Predict the 3D structure of the following.
Amino acid sequence: MDIYPGDYIDVTSKLQVGCVRKVPHKGCSNSACLRIENSIEGFKFYCFKCREYRFDSVLNSPAERARRTAAFKAYREARAKNSHELPPDFSQTLPEAGLAWLGKAGWTSCIIRHYDIGYSEDLCRVILPVYYRGVYSGYIARSVEEWLEPKYLESTDQGVMWESRPHTDESSCVVCEDILSAGRCGEIVKAYALLGTSLDTSQLNTLRKYERIYLWLDPDKGGRQGVIDAVNRLRIFSEVIIITSDKDPKYLTNSEIQEKFYG
């Protein structure tokens, strides 16, 4: 069965360089048997059912090919060198899907602007800059397209946490699982987001300066006993309070979040 690239523009227009997606082959099968790869040279189509192959470079002008090559190379080299610079095409103009994802988590335009949230067309992801101890330490890139994998790309220094803005009450802090939850909690108390599944000595030393430490992990994730054990070591220096909830902090209202801290 012939493959017509024009039938898949809704897919290829959103597929970033280096990524692959499987979709139904129109006219052949309703199953996801058609593999579409967005390579630097162009789009490669292959159907596992009828064995049809098609290479389409029509969308790749010399300028577009050069842009794709540079973007893909820059990201890979940055990861290899641990430079963690923001993507070259980073923009604070967010697409509707990105705004919807942030809005679902209760992030207002004010919070978005404060934390310099942006978007990369080349990576096809929302960019969440990471600042730790007041220093830029890399970024987390999150796909807002359900079909785009991996969902997250991380390019950060080792051993960092995402840190919220300075707070008037520096005697307490909360440690959350993800940036969106920490950002919401950061409107009420100083907040940190884990960028891994454990806390190292440096991170523990950052937290031990607080008189009271709240630990608020996502309710639907396991395998965080190591984090709990590490934070419990801080009980020697600080009061540690573990918060539980049916929903992630980011899905609660401001009053519900505040009630968790102050009753």
